[in-house]
Each structure stands twice: as structure tokens, then as C-alpha cells.
Amino acid sequence: MTDSRYSVVIIGGGVVGLGVALEITRRFPHLRLLVLEKEDRVARHQSGHNSGVIHSGVYYKPGSMKARLCVSGAAAMVEFCREHGIAHNVCGKVIVATRADELARLEELRRRGEANGLTSLRLIGPEELREIEPHASGLQALVVPSTGITDYAAVCEKYAELVAARGGTIRTCAAATGIRRIASEIVVETSQGVFSTAAVINCAGLFADRISRMAGDDPGVMIVPFRGEYYDLVPERASLVRALIYPVPDPRFPFLGVHFTRRITGKVDAGPNAVLALAREGYRHSDINVRDLASSLAFPGFWRMARQHWRSGLGEWHRSLSKPVFVRALQRLLPEVEANDLVPGGSGVRAQALRPDGTLLDDFQFVPSDKVLHVLNVPSPAATASLTIGKVIVDMAAADMGLS
Ligand SMILES: Cc1cc2nc3c(=O)[nH]c(=O)nc-3n(C[C@H](O)[C@H](O)[C@H](O)COP(=O)(O)OP(=O)(O)OC[C@H]3O[C@@H](n4cnc5c(N)ncnc54)[C@H](O)[C@@H]3O)c2cc1C
Known about the structure:
binds flavin-adenine dinucleotide; 20 strands
């Protein structure tokens, strides 16, 4: 028994699900499309709790999906914001080496960026760094002019508005609770009734592995939630930062290290760190979800990851619980910043796929399985790349699931 029949159902109203929905309505306007979002509005989780950076593509391994989709996605995002009047600014950023052992990694980043097709990257010394960011300090810096900032919650609202204008349906407060494959159709049970469809695209972010299991598939990974916490620079000290000041990232981790970001609103924040969260939607230390915790502890890859990274994991917790430690990390980039300049800001929780062997999946991962396509790993820069991710996923859906 079904209330309604659709050609395709997307689970998840974040920037990825909505980017896919936008591409479907553009390419296949005749299809009946439904987006299910369990919250009362779109972009309630990662897509509305991020740094708002339009990443350039400088960090990612040449040839990876992240590299290709970020570079093309950044250009598409800037164009989208321009076309739809969404506030954005291609302000550029500096990645600053503060220790001698980071110099070779900075040079490697420049090589990567060029291999990924970025032009105008420049390595500069401390004097030129001070001309760009007068309060930053370092041995050398990489200037990345194509990095920008925007507001991804506003981007999501615009995606949703365009999807609806082209005939797609977005249902909020509609959690997918069951998926059954019956002959040639799929039945999706939700908190708002039952829908039948020819195809499902799982863009459930922090719950993508559970939705995959709900559909009877083995995701092969577990989603681990890593909370990123921010401090805000008090307005009187926001002038310490003109645009974006980043450290050289540790190549062992997929996170970029705490940095300074001037938001599109003019506010400057510092962070995010990367603390293992005790709940998939655990925005505060006190948020603990027994089911989430138990499923993490039962996954063999979790213990393998813990064995490899316990030292840095404890370091992140320490920095999270101790403001002076957080401030010391920031002072490497901006020596003048002091504890009094910073007040607690917001937080976001990243969905990071973990393999059974304990490695964190680096690249994006989209896995088709019969009439269901699972988007299992779309960490940063997926907001930047959401328009091009939408195109690639719709290409896959057309090829593997007969979407036409
Ligand atoms: C702290 C932080 C900083 C970041 N900074 C940047 C940045 O500067 N630039 C950048 O490009 N990227 C950044 N990212 C990454 C980026 O935000 C994510 O890659 C992107 O938002 C992922 O989008 P998504 O749609 O997959 O996930 P989400 O936005 O989490 O959307 C998934 C949606 O699925 C819904 N859902 C889950 N289960 C169900 C269910 N059963 N039924 C119905 N709906 C369900 C959820 O409610 C949610 O709305 C950052 C991320 C974080 C957390």
C-alpha cells in the first residue's frame, strides 16, 4: 500500500541531496522527484554548520574525485552565487608554514594545486605575508587566490527553491524509516507515510551507512562523527584577520587544522578542531547517544583507528577541553591573538567514513546497488563541489539505475 508514487526519492536535504535533486530537475524535468528530510528545514546538519569556504582544490590528491570535483565545483559555486544573488567573496587565502618541517609539505601543496589545474599559486616569504595578512606570522606561505567564502545554508535554500519551482517535492519532518525492494519498485517508509519509487539516492550524511543497511546493502564502512568546534573572535579584534589564514595540514588526517575564517557576514571564527563525537548529531560534549556509541565500539575498524590515532585523538580532546591549548595552536598563525579575544562559537559534526581496516576514507564514495545509490563519503569539500557532485551522481544514476 503506498500513498504516492515517484520516479526517484532522495533521502537527505543537505547540500549534496539538494545538489543531486537540482541536477535531476534540470536534466530530467519530467521525472517525479521527492526529497525526504527528517528535520523541519533543509541544511540542519553539516550543510548548515560548516566554515562556509569555497575551497580551491589545492589539497587533494591529483586525479582523485575530490580534486576534480572541487576545482570544477568551486567555479560552478561562484557562478551559482553570482547568478542567484547569494553573498560570496573570492577573497583568497594563505596557508602558512610556521615550522621548518612544514616547508617541504607547503611546496608539495603548491605542486598538488598546480597538478589540479590551479593557476596563480605563489609561495611567499614573511614580509609579503604581512602585506596580505598584517598580523600573521610564518616562515613561508602559499597564496591561493581562488578560495572564497559563502553561506551554504543560503545556497541550500536556493537549491530547494529551484527544485520546487521545477516541480520537485521537498518534504521536511519526513524521516525515512524503512526501505523494501519489491519486484521492480522500492517502497520507502517514512514518518509521513509510505512512498513507492523506481530509484532511491541515499544522501543521508551522518546516517548514510544506516540507510544503506536499511536498504539491505552492506555499506562496507561506518560513519564516524567528528565534531568541529569554533571560537569567534570578538568584534573589536576581528581586524586581526583580513580573509582566511590556514596552517599546513597534517597529511595523516583528512582535516585541515584549526584556522581563521572571515565569514561572509564579516564575523571571524577560529577552528574547527576534530573531536570524536559521542553522538552522530553531537554538537556538544554532553551529547551522548548510546546507539551511536555502541555501533562505533562494535565496528572493528574503530579499534584499529583508535590504536593508530589515540595520541592525536587525545590531543584533540585536550585542545577541546582547554581554551589555553586551543589558543596556543592559533597563536602559531597569529601570535597577537589572546584568550580574551575569543568567545565560544558554534560547532558542526563531520560525517567521515571509516573502513574495517581502521583507515579513514579519503575520497568521495558513491556506491550503486541495484536501484539504490548510496553516497557514503562526502566530507569537505563537498559543499563547494555540490553542483558537480550532483552531475556525477546523476550520470551514475542514469547509467546504473536507468534514470532517464
Ligand atoms: C565543521 C565543518 C566544516 C566544514 N567546512 C566546509 C567548508 O568550509 N567548505 C566545504 O566545501 N565543506 C565543508 N564541510 C563539509 C560539508 O559541510 C559537507 O561535506 C556537506 O555539507 C555534506 O552534505 P550532505 O548533504 O552529505 O550532509 P548533511 O548536510 O548532513 O545532510 C544530510 C541530511 O540527511 C538528513 N537525514 C539523515 N537521515 C535521514 C533519514 N532517515 N530520513 C530523512 N533525512 C535524513 C539529515 O537530517 C541531513 O539534513 C564542513 C563540514 C563540517 C562539519
